[in-house]
């Protein structure tokens, strides 16, 4: 038996064992993921075929510590998605609603473009091109796709399936310039009038009005609360007997897939839990609504179905849109009342108070997303220019 050696790349020496009656064996020592050198060998009919087989074996060995995942760079992308969703549930950090949103965005926005690819085929250029094409259709959809793609590929990098996440180097999405839209006082009164007309039965269409829609609008206008937070208000959260009537915002309404709508015992964020002094028009609407509640328990919802169950946010949105369409008013959503309140408080007392009322931790969020820009320049400029450039008499 003869022995031949060849130095190749970083694998060190490759040794060959040759016997006329046996296939050629190529072997080399490989420095593994744990720093230890291990003997790896392959066979072939000839020296060249044995060397090719050995190189293929060495290329398949991972430099990373083996983990509990069966994922490899050659795993199909849907396998990573399943692994990522399972990991999110194990972390138990996100709410059930957020988990379902992540899954929906991944399956509807990302998977159609990546489902036939392996992980090693998903690079920076492919991710960058995908997000830019999606952004041409919708910035918001591209933003949501970017979030879940970054999370999934980031997990693959953290668990050492990929050497790095391609999402670390994609270009930033450019958000189109938008201006928060809010209602004027006249438009608010037009909405009130349309709802009152419908609730009085003068524009009857669909189920008989129960008077809740108008009260919901008054509570949104008086608290700046989100629609889900308003629908989660209980009798125990209301104080209309004090000198300063108030409502405590302490929960929200959620609808999980395959489950009945329920009250969640905390609002969107920790800062969102707050007690808000309410104006007289809201206090009056709340008093009227309380007199119509059949359930006298402290946990009874202020707004509920005839069976006492929570109203869904989608149904309230749909009902509002239907009523306003009858009146020829379009484009008004429940969230617009939140922006309307923020704009009004900003104009009266500044952005810090507006942010506090909305439950924002950062006033910049309030400015960027909730306050309608006042295009009227301070009229004092006219007086100044009169003094400087006024024509001589």
Automatic annotation (TrEMBL):
InterPro entries: DNA_brk_join_enz, Integrase-like_cat_sf, Integrase_catalytic, Integrase_recombinase_N, Tyrosine_recombinase_XerCD
Record's keyword annotation contains Repressor: no
Record carries keyword DNA-binding: yes
Gene3D superfamilies: 1.10.150.130, Intergrase catalytic core
GO biological process: DNA integration; DNA recombination
Keywords on record: DNA recombination, DNA-binding
Domain Tyr recombinase: 178-390
Entries under PROSITE patterns matching the protein: TYR_RECOMBINASE
Family note: Belongs to the 'phage' integrase family.
UniProt protein name: Site-specific integrase
Organism: Leucobacter triazinivorans
